[in-house]
Amino acid sequence: MPLLEMKHITKAFSGVCANEDVCLSVEQGEIHALLGENGAGKTTLMNILFGIYQADGGEILYKGKSVRFHSPADAIEHGIGMVHQHFSLVNKMTVLDNIILGLSSSNAVLDRKTAGEEVKRLGEKYGLLVNPEDRINGLSVGEQQRVEILKALYRNVNLLILDEPTGVLTPQETERFFDVLKRLKEEGYGIIIITHRLSEIMAISDRVTILRDGRSVKNLVTADTTPEELSAFMIGRPLSPKKEERKEPLPQTALELKGVSISKKHGGKKVLDSISFTVKKGEILGVAGVEGNGQKELAEVITGIRRHTEGSLSFDGESLDRLCVRERFNRGISYVSDDRHRDSLVMDMTVMENLILRNYNRLPFSRNRLLDYKKAEKRAEEALAEYGIKTSGKSGIKTLVRLMSGGNQQKVILSREISEEASLIVASQPTRGLDMGASEFVHNTLIRQKEQGKSVVLISADLDEIMSLSDRIAVMFEGRIIGILNRKEASVNEIGLYMGGVTGKEISHE
Ligand SMILES: Nc1ncnc2c1ncn2[C@@H]1O[C@H](COP(=O)(O)OP(=O)(O)OP(=O)(O)O)[C@@H](O)[C@H]1O
Ligand SMILES: [Mg+2]
Protein backbone atom coordinates (compact mmCIF):
# COMPACT_ATOMS: atom_id res chain seq x y z
CA MET A 1 0.00 0.00 0.00
CA PRO A 2 1.49 3.36 -1.00
CA LEU A 3 1.93 6.02 1.68
CA LEU A 4 0.06 8.53 -0.44
CA GLU A 5 -2.25 8.23 -3.41
CA MET A 6 -3.75 11.24 -5.12
CA LYS A 7 -6.34 10.07 -7.64
CA HIS A 8 -7.91 12.06 -10.47
CA ILE A 9 -7.47 15.41 -8.71
CA THR A 10 -9.17 18.36 -10.38
CA LYS A 11 -8.99 22.00 -9.41
CA ALA A 12 -10.10 25.11 -11.25
CA PHE A 13 -9.74 28.78 -10.31
CA SER A 14 -12.65 30.82 -11.62
CA GLY A 15 -13.10 28.47 -14.53
CA VAL A 16 -9.40 27.97 -15.31
CA CYS A 17 -8.14 24.45 -14.80
CA ALA A 18 -4.94 24.32 -12.73
CA ASN A 19 -5.15 20.56 -12.12
CA GLU A 20 -7.04 18.11 -14.27
CA ASP A 21 -7.24 14.40 -13.56
CA VAL A 22 -3.86 14.38 -11.78
CA CYS A 23 -2.63 11.13 -10.27
CA LEU A 24 0.35 10.80 -7.97
CA SER A 25 1.47 8.05 -5.68
CA VAL A 26 4.32 8.05 -3.18
CA GLU A 27 5.73 5.10 -1.26
CA GLN A 28 7.27 5.08 2.17
CA GLY A 29 11.00 5.64 1.93
CA GLU A 30 10.66 7.13 -1.53
CA ILE A 31 11.86 10.46 -2.92
CA HIS A 32 9.38 11.42 -5.58
CA ALA A 33 10.12 14.33 -7.91
CA LEU A 34 7.40 16.51 -9.37
CA LEU A 35 8.46 18.09 -12.64
CA GLY A 36 6.74 20.51 -14.98
CA GLU A 37 7.00 23.88 -16.66
CA ASN A 38 6.10 27.12 -14.92
CA GLY A 39 2.36 27.11 -14.38
CA ALA A 40 1.97 23.35 -14.94
CA GLY A 41 0.13 23.03 -11.63
CA LYS A 42 2.75 21.63 -9.23
CA THR A 43 2.26 24.07 -6.38
CA THR A 44 -1.51 23.88 -6.72
CA LEU A 45 -1.42 20.09 -6.38
CA MET A 46 0.75 20.31 -3.28
CA ASN A 47 -1.42 23.04 -1.78
CA ILE A 48 -4.41 20.74 -2.17
CA LEU A 49 -2.54 17.94 -0.44
CA PHE A 50 -1.50 20.30 2.37
CA GLY A 51 -5.04 21.56 2.97
CA ILE A 52 -4.52 25.08 1.62
CA TYR A 53 -6.93 24.50 -1.27
CA GLN A 54 -9.82 22.09 -1.59
CA ALA A 55 -9.93 19.94 -4.71
CA ASP A 56 -13.01 20.15 -6.91
CA GLY A 57 -12.82 16.46 -7.65
CA GLY A 58 -10.74 13.35 -7.04
CA GLU A 59 -9.61 11.52 -3.97
CA ILE A 60 -6.65 11.50 -1.61
CA LEU A 61 -5.70 8.30 0.16
CA TYR A 62 -3.18 8.58 2.97
CA LYS A 63 -1.95 5.33 4.52
CA GLY A 64 -4.83 3.65 2.76
CA LYS A 65 -7.53 5.89 4.24
CA SER A 66 -9.52 8.43 2.29
CA VAL A 67 -8.69 11.89 3.65
CA ARG A 68 -9.48 15.53 2.92
CA PHE A 69 -7.60 18.21 4.80
CA HIS A 70 -9.28 21.47 5.64
CA SER A 71 -6.19 23.40 6.72
CA PRO A 72 -2.41 22.96 6.95
CA ALA A 73 -2.85 22.28 10.68
CA ASP A 74 -5.16 19.44 9.71
CA ALA A 75 -2.60 18.05 7.23
CA ILE A 76 0.21 18.25 9.78
CA GLU A 77 -1.98 16.50 12.34
CA HIS A 78 -2.30 13.61 9.90
CA GLY A 79 1.46 13.49 9.24
CA ILE A 80 2.05 15.68 6.20
CA GLY A 81 4.51 18.58 6.32
CA MET A 82 5.33 21.17 3.68
CA VAL A 83 8.24 23.57 3.20
CA HIS A 84 7.21 26.42 0.91
CA GLN A 85 9.51 28.17 -1.47
CA HIS A 86 9.15 31.36 0.52
CA PHE A 87 9.89 30.46 4.10
CA SER A 88 7.42 31.40 6.79
CA LEU A 89 9.74 31.81 9.77
CA VAL A 90 9.49 34.69 12.21
CA ASN A 91 12.73 36.61 11.81
CA LYS A 92 13.07 38.11 15.25
CA MET A 93 12.46 34.88 17.10
CA THR A 94 14.89 32.09 17.87
CA VAL A 95 15.12 28.80 16.02
CA LEU A 96 13.52 26.95 18.91
CA ASP A 97 10.62 29.39 19.34
CA ASN A 98 9.91 29.13 15.64
CA ILE A 99 9.86 25.36 15.85
CA ILE A 100 7.47 25.18 18.78
CA LEU A 101 5.37 28.15 17.62
CA GLY A 102 1.69 27.32 17.58
CA LEU A 103 1.99 24.10 19.57
CA SER A 104 -0.05 24.10 22.74
CA SER A 105 1.62 23.53 26.09
CA SER A 106 0.70 23.51 29.73
CA ASN A 107 4.15 24.16 31.16
CA ALA A 108 6.04 26.45 28.80
CA VAL A 109 9.35 26.53 30.67
CA LEU A 110 9.63 22.80 31.09
CA ASP A 111 8.40 22.24 27.52
CA ARG A 112 10.97 24.60 26.12
CA LYS A 113 13.79 22.62 27.68
CA THR A 114 12.50 19.27 26.43
CA ALA A 115 11.79 20.80 23.06
CA GLY A 116 15.34 22.13 22.85
CA GLU A 117 16.69 18.67 23.55
CA GLU A 118 14.40 17.08 21.00
CA VAL A 119 15.43 19.61 18.34
CA LYS A 120 19.09 18.89 19.08
CA ARG A 121 18.46 15.16 18.83
CA LEU A 122 16.64 15.47 15.51
CA GLY A 123 19.31 17.82 14.21
CA GLU A 124 22.08 15.39 15.02
CA LYS A 125 20.22 12.40 13.69
CA TYR A 126 19.55 13.94 10.28
CA GLY A 127 22.46 16.32 9.92
CA LEU A 128 20.23 19.38 10.27
CA LEU A 129 22.66 21.32 12.40
CA VAL A 130 21.48 24.63 13.83
CA ASN A 131 21.72 26.22 17.23
CA PRO A 132 18.21 26.32 18.77
CA GLU A 133 18.97 29.63 20.49
CA ASP A 134 20.09 31.51 17.36
CA ARG A 135 17.78 34.12 15.93
CA ILE A 136 16.40 33.50 12.45
CA ASN A 137 17.59 36.81 11.02
CA GLY A 138 21.21 35.84 11.66
CA LEU A 139 20.93 32.60 9.70
CA SER A 140 21.83 31.86 6.08
CA VAL A 141 19.08 30.65 3.75
CA GLY A 142 20.45 27.13 3.97
CA GLU A 143 20.19 27.23 7.76
CA GLN A 144 16.68 28.67 7.63
CA GLN A 145 15.67 25.81 5.44
CA ARG A 146 17.01 23.35 8.00
CA VAL A 147 14.80 25.06 10.58
CA GLU A 148 11.75 24.64 8.33
CA ILE A 149 12.48 20.95 7.97
CA LEU A 150 13.12 20.52 11.69
CA LYS A 151 9.81 22.24 12.33
CA ALA A 152 8.03 19.63 10.23
CA LEU A 153 9.95 16.69 11.73
CA TYR A 154 9.25 17.97 15.24
CA ARG A 155 5.56 17.62 14.40
CA ASN A 156 6.06 13.93 13.61
CA VAL A 157 5.20 14.03 9.93
CA ASN A 158 5.80 10.99 7.70
CA LEU A 159 5.52 12.77 4.38
CA LEU A 160 7.45 15.91 3.54
CA ILE A 161 6.61 18.21 0.63
CA LEU A 162 9.45 20.45 -0.58
CA ASP A 163 8.53 23.14 -3.12
CA GLU A 164 11.69 24.18 -5.00
CA PRO A 165 13.95 23.73 -1.98
CA THR A 166 17.27 24.03 -3.79
CA GLY A 167 16.60 27.26 -5.69
CA VAL A 168 18.10 29.29 -2.88
CA LEU A 169 21.01 27.01 -2.02
CA THR A 170 24.64 27.08 -3.10
CA PRO A 171 25.99 23.92 -4.77
CA GLN A 172 27.68 22.91 -1.51
CA GLU A 173 24.51 23.49 0.49
CA THR A 174 22.50 21.49 -2.02
CA GLU A 175 24.86 18.56 -1.60
CA ARG A 176 24.49 18.65 2.16
CA PHE A 177 20.74 19.03 1.81
CA PHE A 178 20.60 15.91 -0.35
CA ASP A 179 22.46 13.97 2.33
CA VAL A 180 19.72 14.98 4.74
CA LEU A 181 17.05 13.79 2.31
CA LYS A 182 18.81 10.46 1.88
CA ARG A 183 18.87 9.96 5.62
CA LEU A 184 15.17 10.78 5.90
CA LYS A 185 14.46 8.34 3.11
CA GLU A 186 16.36 5.58 4.92
CA GLU A 187 14.19 6.22 7.96
CA GLY A 188 11.09 5.59 5.87
CA TYR A 189 9.90 9.13 5.25
CA GLY A 190 8.11 9.81 2.00
CA ILE A 191 9.39 12.92 0.24
CA ILE A 192 7.91 14.92 -2.62
CA ILE A 193 10.37 17.37 -4.15
CA ILE A 194 9.62 20.01 -6.78
CA THR A 195 12.64 21.13 -8.77
CA HIS A 196 13.36 22.45 -12.26
CA ARG A 197 16.88 21.05 -12.28
CA LEU A 198 17.04 17.74 -14.09
CA SER A 199 20.47 16.93 -12.69
CA GLU A 200 18.96 17.09 -9.20
CA ILE A 201 16.11 14.83 -10.15
CA MET A 202 18.56 12.32 -11.58
CA ALA A 203 20.74 12.51 -8.46
CA ILE A 204 18.17 12.27 -5.70
CA SER A 205 14.80 10.89 -6.79
CA ASP A 206 13.45 7.34 -7.08
CA ARG A 207 10.54 8.20 -9.36
CA VAL A 208 9.31 11.23 -11.27
CA THR A 209 5.82 12.43 -12.10
CA ILE A 210 5.62 14.95 -14.92
CA LEU A 211 2.84 17.53 -15.11
CA ARG A 212 1.96 19.33 -18.30
CA ASP A 213 -0.81 21.91 -18.56
CA GLY A 214 -2.34 20.72 -15.32
CA ARG A 215 -2.33 17.01 -16.21
CA SER A 216 -0.04 14.23 -15.03
CA VAL A 217 1.37 13.05 -18.34
CA LYS A 218 3.98 10.53 -17.24
CA ASN A 219 5.29 8.57 -14.32
CA LEU A 220 8.85 7.29 -14.62
CA VAL A 221 11.39 5.35 -12.61
CA THR A 222 14.41 7.65 -12.40
CA ALA A 223 16.94 4.88 -12.96
CA ASP A 224 15.24 3.99 -16.25
CA THR A 225 15.11 7.49 -17.71
CA THR A 226 17.44 10.23 -18.93
CA PRO A 227 17.42 14.03 -18.64
CA GLU A 228 16.63 14.19 -22.36
CA GLU A 229 13.58 12.02 -21.96
CA LEU A 230 12.38 14.02 -18.96
CA SER A 231 12.72 17.28 -20.83
CA ALA A 232 10.95 15.88 -23.85
CA PHE A 233 7.95 14.78 -21.76
CA MET A 234 7.89 18.09 -19.98
CA ILE A 235 8.08 20.53 -22.86
CA GLY A 236 7.51 18.32 -25.85
CA ARG A 237 10.84 19.14 -27.52
CA PRO A 238 14.55 18.66 -26.81
CA LEU A 239 16.51 21.70 -25.61
CA SER A 240 18.76 23.26 -28.21
CA PRO A 241 22.45 22.93 -27.34
CA LYS A 242 24.16 26.14 -26.25
CA LYS A 243 26.27 27.95 -28.78
CA GLU A 244 29.81 27.83 -27.50
CA GLU A 245 31.52 30.30 -29.83
CA ARG A 246 30.99 33.85 -28.65
CA LYS A 247 32.21 37.23 -29.70
CA GLU A 248 35.01 38.75 -27.67
CA PRO A 249 34.10 41.84 -25.61
CA LEU A 250 34.76 45.23 -27.24
CA PRO A 251 37.66 47.39 -26.02
CA GLN A 252 35.46 50.24 -24.72
CA THR A 253 34.67 50.36 -21.02
CA ALA A 254 30.99 50.54 -20.08
CA LEU A 255 30.95 50.35 -16.29
CA GLU A 256 33.82 51.18 -13.99
CA LEU A 257 34.02 50.90 -10.20
CA LYS A 258 36.97 52.38 -8.35
CA GLY A 259 37.48 51.58 -4.68
CA VAL A 260 33.76 51.42 -3.98
CA SER A 261 32.94 50.72 -0.34
CA ILE A 262 29.96 50.80 1.98
CA SER A 263 30.92 51.31 5.60
CA LYS A 264 28.50 50.72 8.42
CA LYS A 265 27.45 53.75 10.49
CA HIS A 266 28.83 52.30 13.68
CA GLY A 267 32.02 50.86 12.27
CA GLY A 268 32.58 47.11 11.99
CA LYS A 269 33.16 45.15 8.83
CA LYS A 270 32.43 46.93 5.57
CA VAL A 271 29.50 45.60 3.58
CA LEU A 272 31.41 46.36 0.40
CA ASP A 273 35.15 46.73 0.68
CA SER A 274 37.16 48.58 -2.00
CA ILE A 275 35.52 47.08 -5.04
CA SER A 276 37.28 47.91 -8.31
CA PHE A 277 36.54 46.44 -11.72
CA THR A 278 35.45 47.35 -15.22
CA VAL A 279 32.87 45.83 -17.51
CA LYS A 280 33.46 46.27 -21.22
CA LYS A 281 30.86 46.78 -23.86
CA GLY A 282 29.85 43.41 -25.19
CA GLU A 283 30.93 41.69 -22.00
CA ILE A 284 29.14 39.50 -19.49
CA LEU A 285 30.85 39.73 -16.12
CA GLY A 286 29.78 36.86 -13.88
CA VAL A 287 29.76 37.47 -10.13
CA ALA A 288 30.07 34.23 -8.17
CA GLY A 289 30.07 33.74 -4.44
CA VAL A 290 28.17 32.24 -1.56
CA GLU A 291 25.04 34.29 -1.13
CA GLY A 292 25.32 37.07 1.42
CA ASN A 293 28.89 38.09 0.63
CA GLY A 294 27.97 41.49 -0.74
CA GLN A 295 26.49 40.55 -4.12
CA LYS A 296 23.16 42.17 -3.39
CA GLU A 297 24.82 45.33 -2.12
CA LEU A 298 27.00 45.43 -5.21
CA ALA A 299 23.95 45.24 -7.46
CA GLU A 300 22.21 47.94 -5.46
CA VAL A 301 25.20 50.26 -5.56
CA ILE A 302 25.44 49.96 -9.34
CA THR A 303 21.73 50.56 -9.84
CA GLY A 304 21.56 53.38 -7.28
CA ILE A 305 19.25 51.76 -4.74
CA ARG A 306 22.04 51.97 -2.16
CA ARG A 307 24.64 54.71 -1.75
CA HIS A 308 28.32 53.93 -1.48
CA THR A 309 30.34 55.72 1.19
CA GLU A 310 33.72 55.70 -0.58
CA GLY A 311 35.03 55.39 -4.12
CA SER A 312 33.39 56.21 -7.42
CA LEU A 313 31.34 54.65 -10.21
CA SER A 314 31.08 55.64 -13.82
CA PHE A 315 29.11 54.46 -16.80
CA ASP A 316 29.99 55.30 -20.40
CA GLY A 317 32.55 57.74 -19.05
CA GLU A 318 30.03 59.66 -16.97
CA SER A 319 30.09 59.65 -13.17
CA LEU A 320 27.14 57.88 -11.55
CA ASP A 321 27.90 59.07 -8.05
CA ARG A 322 25.23 61.74 -7.93
CA LEU A 323 22.57 60.01 -9.98
CA CYS A 324 19.47 58.44 -8.44
CA VAL A 325 17.87 55.15 -9.47
CA ARG A 326 15.62 56.68 -12.12
CA GLU A 327 18.42 58.77 -13.64
CA ARG A 328 20.58 55.68 -13.91
CA PHE A 329 17.69 53.74 -15.38
CA ASN A 330 17.20 56.48 -17.97
CA ARG A 331 20.84 56.05 -18.97
CA GLY A 332 20.18 52.39 -19.68
CA ILE A 333 21.01 50.66 -16.40
CA SER A 334 18.46 47.99 -15.69
CA TYR A 335 18.07 45.67 -12.71
CA VAL A 336 16.63 42.20 -12.31
CA SER A 337 16.51 41.82 -8.53
CA ASP A 338 16.65 38.43 -6.82
CA ASP A 339 13.94 39.37 -4.36
CA ARG A 340 11.27 39.75 -6.95
CA HIS A 341 8.31 39.92 -4.63
CA ARG A 342 9.75 42.72 -2.57
CA ASP A 343 11.59 44.79 -5.14
CA SER A 344 9.95 44.33 -8.45
CA LEU A 345 6.31 43.38 -8.57
CA VAL A 346 3.11 44.95 -7.41
CA MET A 347 1.19 41.80 -6.62
CA ASP A 348 -2.24 43.40 -6.73
CA MET A 349 -1.78 44.98 -10.13
CA THR A 350 -2.27 43.29 -13.48
CA VAL A 351 0.41 41.80 -15.70
CA MET A 352 0.13 44.75 -18.08
CA GLU A 353 0.46 47.34 -15.34
CA ASN A 354 3.51 45.56 -13.97
CA LEU A 355 5.05 45.41 -17.41
CA ILE A 356 4.90 49.17 -17.94
CA LEU A 357 5.73 50.16 -14.34
CA ARG A 358 9.06 51.58 -15.38
CA ASN A 359 7.93 53.46 -18.46
CA TYR A 360 4.36 54.52 -17.82
CA ASN A 361 5.24 58.18 -17.73
CA ARG A 362 7.09 58.51 -20.99
CA LEU A 363 6.86 57.72 -24.65
CA PRO A 364 5.67 55.53 -26.25
CA PHE A 365 3.22 54.69 -23.47
CA SER A 366 2.45 58.18 -22.37
CA ARG A 367 1.86 61.43 -24.19
CA ASN A 368 0.84 64.61 -22.40
CA ARG A 369 0.51 62.58 -19.21
CA LEU A 370 -2.11 60.33 -20.71
CA LEU A 371 -1.47 56.63 -20.85
CA ASP A 372 -1.71 55.19 -24.33
CA TYR A 373 -3.65 52.08 -23.49
CA LYS A 374 -3.34 50.49 -26.91
CA LYS A 375 0.45 50.71 -26.93
CA ALA A 376 0.69 49.34 -23.41
CA GLU A 377 -1.58 46.45 -24.33
CA LYS A 378 0.42 45.67 -27.42
CA ARG A 379 3.67 45.66 -25.47
CA ALA A 380 2.13 43.37 -22.87
CA GLU A 381 0.82 40.94 -25.49
CA GLU A 382 4.27 40.82 -27.08
CA ALA A 383 5.90 40.08 -23.74
CA LEU A 384 3.49 37.23 -23.05
CA ALA A 385 4.27 35.65 -26.40
CA GLU A 386 8.01 36.18 -26.24
CA TYR A 387 8.52 34.73 -22.77
CA GLY A 388 5.66 32.23 -22.94
CA ILE A 389 4.06 33.84 -19.89
CA LYS A 390 1.02 31.85 -18.75
CA THR A 391 -1.75 34.00 -17.35
CA SER A 392 -4.97 32.87 -15.84
CA GLY A 393 -7.36 31.83 -18.60
CA LYS A 394 -9.41 34.53 -20.23
CA SER A 395 -8.07 37.41 -18.16
CA GLY A 396 -4.84 37.44 -20.21
CA ILE A 397 -2.83 40.61 -19.65
CA LYS A 398 -5.41 41.71 -17.09
CA THR A 399 -4.56 38.82 -14.75
CA LEU A 400 -3.50 39.94 -11.28
CA VAL A 401 0.13 39.00 -10.73
CA ARG A 402 -0.77 37.59 -7.32
CA LEU A 403 -2.71 34.79 -9.02
CA MET A 404 0.11 33.63 -11.28
CA SER A 405 2.52 30.77 -10.67
CA GLY A 406 5.92 31.62 -9.18
CA GLY A 407 7.84 31.16 -12.40
CA ASN A 408 5.41 33.16 -14.46
CA GLN A 409 5.68 36.09 -12.06
CA GLN A 410 9.41 36.07 -12.65
CA LYS A 411 9.00 36.06 -16.38
CA VAL A 412 6.99 39.29 -16.08
CA ILE A 413 9.90 41.07 -14.43
CA LEU A 414 12.46 39.65 -16.80
CA SER A 415 10.58 40.78 -19.84
CA ARG A 416 10.24 44.27 -18.38
CA GLU A 417 13.86 44.66 -17.33
CA ILE A 418 15.62 42.90 -20.18
CA SER A 419 14.48 45.28 -22.87
CA GLU A 420 15.96 46.81 -25.95
CA GLU A 421 16.57 50.11 -24.18
CA ALA A 422 18.90 48.64 -21.56
CA SER A 423 22.61 49.00 -22.21
CA LEU A 424 23.71 47.50 -18.89
CA ILE A 425 21.71 44.77 -17.23
CA VAL A 426 22.44 43.88 -13.64
CA ALA A 427 20.81 40.48 -13.32
CA SER A 428 20.64 38.77 -9.97
CA GLN A 429 19.72 35.06 -10.03
CA PRO A 430 17.79 35.65 -13.25
CA THR A 431 16.73 32.04 -13.80
CA ARG A 432 15.95 31.03 -10.25
CA GLY A 433 12.56 29.29 -10.26
CA LEU A 434 12.28 29.30 -14.04
CA ASP A 435 11.65 26.14 -16.00
CA MET A 436 14.20 24.95 -18.54
CA GLY A 437 12.61 26.50 -21.56
CA ALA A 438 12.37 29.88 -19.88
CA SER A 439 15.93 29.64 -18.52
CA GLU A 440 17.17 28.89 -21.98
CA PHE A 441 15.32 31.92 -23.29
CA VAL A 442 16.83 34.18 -20.60
CA HIS A 443 20.32 32.87 -21.32
CA ASN A 444 19.92 33.47 -25.01
CA THR A 445 18.59 36.97 -24.36
CA LEU A 446 21.61 37.85 -22.21
CA ILE A 447 23.95 36.50 -24.86
CA ARG A 448 22.12 38.50 -27.52
CA GLN A 449 22.55 41.66 -25.44
CA LYS A 450 26.24 40.96 -25.24
CA GLU A 451 26.55 40.33 -28.95
CA GLN A 452 24.85 43.67 -29.59
CA GLY A 453 27.64 45.38 -27.66
CA LYS A 454 25.72 45.80 -24.43
CA SER A 455 26.94 44.78 -21.01
CA VAL A 456 25.73 42.39 -18.34
CA VAL A 457 26.64 41.92 -14.70
CA LEU A 458 25.36 38.44 -13.93
CA ILE A 459 25.10 37.59 -10.25
CA SER A 460 24.30 33.94 -9.72
CA ALA A 461 24.69 31.18 -7.20
CA ASP A 462 24.41 28.70 -10.06
CA LEU A 463 27.98 27.98 -11.11
CA ASP A 464 26.92 26.22 -14.28
CA GLU A 465 25.09 29.35 -15.34
CA ILE A 466 28.07 31.54 -14.48
CA MET A 467 30.50 29.27 -16.32
CA SER A 468 28.42 28.97 -19.46
CA LEU A 469 27.63 32.69 -19.92
CA SER A 470 30.45 34.82 -18.52
CA ASP A 471 33.47 36.27 -20.28
CA ARG A 472 35.12 36.89 -16.94
CA ILE A 473 34.15 35.76 -13.46
CA ALA A 474 34.56 37.86 -10.31
CA VAL A 475 34.30 35.99 -7.02
CA MET A 476 33.03 37.82 -3.95
CA PHE A 477 33.89 36.96 -0.39
CA GLU A 478 33.00 39.02 2.68
CA GLY A 479 32.29 42.18 0.73
CA ARG A 480 35.46 42.00 -1.37
CA ILE A 481 36.29 40.78 -4.81
CA ILE A 482 38.75 38.07 -4.05
CA GLY A 483 39.65 37.25 -7.63
CA ILE A 484 38.67 37.85 -11.24
CA LEU A 485 39.21 34.98 -13.65
CA ASN A 486 38.92 34.54 -17.36
CA ARG A 487 36.22 32.03 -18.11
CA LYS A 488 38.43 30.06 -20.42
CA GLU A 489 41.02 29.58 -17.71
CA ALA A 490 38.68 29.16 -14.75
CA SER A 491 37.67 25.80 -13.33
CA VAL A 492 34.68 25.13 -11.10
CA ASN A 493 37.06 23.83 -8.51
CA GLU A 494 39.12 27.01 -8.46
CA ILE A 495 36.03 29.22 -8.22
CA GLY A 496 34.76 27.02 -5.41
CA LEU A 497 38.00 27.66 -3.49
CA TYR A 498 37.73 31.40 -4.04
CA MET A 499 34.12 31.26 -2.87
CA GLY A 500 35.34 29.78 0.37
CA GLY A 501 37.73 32.70 0.85
CA VAL A 502 40.97 31.11 -0.35
CA THR A 503 42.85 33.85 -2.19
CA GLY A 504 44.62 33.62 -5.50
CA LYS A 505 48.06 33.54 -3.97
CA GLU A 506 47.16 30.45 -1.99
CA ILE A 507 46.00 28.52 -5.03
CA SER A 508 48.97 27.01 -6.78
CA HIS A 509 48.79 26.78 -10.55
CA GLU A 510 50.74 23.74 -11.54
N1 LIG B 1 -5.26 31.37 -6.36
C1 LIG B 1 -5.26 31.29 -7.71
N2 LIG B 1 -6.16 31.96 -8.45
C2 LIG B 1 -6.17 31.87 -9.79
N3 LIG B 1 -5.31 31.15 -10.51
C3 LIG B 1 -4.37 30.45 -9.84
C4 LIG B 1 -4.28 30.49 -8.41
N4 LIG B 1 -3.24 29.71 -8.01
C5 LIG B 1 -2.70 29.22 -9.15
N5 LIG B 1 -3.38 29.64 -10.25
C6 LIG B 1 -3.11 29.29 -11.65
O1 LIG B 1 -2.96 27.88 -11.74
C7 LIG B 1 -1.93 27.52 -12.66
C8 LIG B 1 -0.93 26.60 -12.02
O2 LIG B 1 -0.16 27.32 -11.06
P1 LIG B 1 0.90 26.66 -10.08
O3 LIG B 1 1.33 27.71 -9.13
O4 LIG B 1 0.33 25.41 -9.51
O5 LIG B 1 2.07 26.31 -11.11
P2 LIG B 1 3.52 25.66 -10.82
O6 LIG B 1 3.59 24.39 -11.59
O7 LIG B 1 3.78 25.60 -9.37
O8 LIG B 1 4.48 26.71 -11.56
P3 LIG B 1 5.92 27.34 -11.14
O9 LIG B 1 6.97 26.39 -11.60
O10 LIG B 1 5.97 28.59 -11.95
O11 LIG B 1 5.91 27.59 -9.66
C9 LIG B 1 -1.34 28.84 -13.15
O12 LIG B 1 -1.88 29.14 -14.40
C10 LIG B 1 -1.78 29.86 -12.12
O13 LIG B 1 -1.95 31.12 -12.71
MG1 LIG C 1 5.14 26.64 -8.07
Give a short overview.
With 510 residues, this protein is an alpha/beta fold. It is built from 17 helices and 22 strands.
Key features of this structure:
single chain, 510 residues, alpha/beta, Rossmann fold, six-stranded mixed beta sheet, 17 helices, binds magnesium ion
Question: What is the element layout, followed by pairings?
Answer:
Blueprint: E1 4-13, E2 16-26, E3 31-36, H1 42-49, E4 57-62, E5 65-67, H2 72-77, E6 80-83, H3 95-100, H4 108-126, H5 141-154, E7 159-163, H6 171-186, E8 190-194, H7 198-204, E9 207-212, E10 215-221, H8 227-235, E11 253-262, E12 272-280, E13 284-288, H9 295-303, E14 310-315, E15 318-319, H10 325-330, E16 333-336, H11 340-343, H12 351-355, E17 366-367, E18 370-371, H13 373-387, H14 406-417, E19 424-428, H15 436-451, E20 455-459, H16 463-469, E21 472-477, E22 480-486, H17 492-499
Parallel strand pairs: 3-8, 3-9, 6-7, 7-8, 13-20, 13-21, 16-19, 19-20
Antiparallel strand pairs: 1-2, 1-4, 4-5, 9-10, 11-12, 11-14, 14-15, 17-18, 21-22
Magnesium ion (MG) binds next to helix 1.
